[in-house]
Amino acid sequence: MTEKRAGLSAMTLKYIAMATMLVDHMGYVLFPWILWLRCVGRIAFPIFAFQIAEGCIRTHDRRRYALRLLLFAVLTEVPFDLAFNGQVLYLGYQNVLWTLLAGALVCWAADWAQRTPDALHLLAATAAFAGAFWLLEVCHTDYGGWGMALILLFHLSRGNRLIQLAGLAVFCVASVGGVSIELYALVSLAFIWLYDGRRGYCSRPIQWLCYAFYPVHLLLLWLYARTVDGIWYLT
Q1: Given phi > 0 = left and psi -120 to 50 = alpha, else beta, which region is 46?
Q2: Is 199 within a domain?
Q3: What is 126-191 written as a DSSP string?
Q4: Looking at the domain assignment, is residue 149 inside a domain?
Q5: Alpha-carbon dihedral of residues 141, 147, 51, 114, nearest 10 degrees?
Q6: Which residues of 62-76 are buried (b: 16+ CB within 10 A; e: fewer)?
């Protein structure tokens, strides 16, 4: 009997997403003239979006899951604004955790509508999606309404690679309004499709460290840009 080869666990996917996100943000904050860093960074968001879609199904406590996303969305805002805009508080652009939180909420709304598939529930879930899409676009969250839509697409298309490929391609174009380096995000599917359903080792401290990585690495990048050899473009 041939033993089935294991793929990537959820934690391995998370580490890949975190690593490529770090490369992306290093490119934006420290080395904006090195384009390939931003290209590598396109891999990160679809993996995070996929993991939110999976997390919505696998979490044992939706309330705590949503509250964790909300907590770190709030905690990340100042480091995000410092790293990307050089201001303690900038209202014109918000961090991606708001998009991820909205994605989780609309996934649960879709699940609710599917459990009672009548016109009223479908209309309510559609209204929730449309309202969240509009709010994310108005607030200019990172990846905005299209990022939320990608999370929902992954949630509703589990196992359907053709839909995932087509949906991600549409996201790559629609999220930036045309063809760009965002198309490198399609590479993320090579990792997502290797996911084998395992969680991987994740203790409670590791879980919180993964959440904290986002605001902490942004703050460290900003501090580095402020203090190291001749990089003063944020002043």
Answers
A1: alpha
A2: yes
A3: HHHHHHHHHHHHHHTBTTHHHHHHHHHHHHH-TT-HHHHHHHHHHHHHHTTTSSSGGGGGGGHHHH
A4: yes
A5: 120
A6: eeebbebbeebbebb
pLDDT for 228 = 72
Is position 15 within any domain? yes
For 117, the domain range is: 10-229
Assigned token pair, 194: 């290797």
Domain count along the chain: 1
Q: What is the pLDDT of residues 140-171, one digit of tens each?
A: 999 999 999 999 999 999 989 999 999 999 99
Contact indicator for 154, 168 with CB cutoff of 8 Å: no
- pLDDT tens, position by position, 73-84: 999 999 999 999
In a domain, 5, yes or no: no
As a whole number of angstroms, the distance between CA 175 and CA 233 comes to 27
When pLDDT is averaged across residues 187-207 and rounded to a whole number, the result is 92
The CA distances from residue 122 to 112, 127, 148, in Å, are 9, 9, 18
Spatial CA neighbour of 65 closest among 28, 94, 103, 38: 103
Q: How far is 161 from 145, CA to CA, in rounded Å?
A: 22
CA separation for the pair 133, 146 (Å, rounded): 7
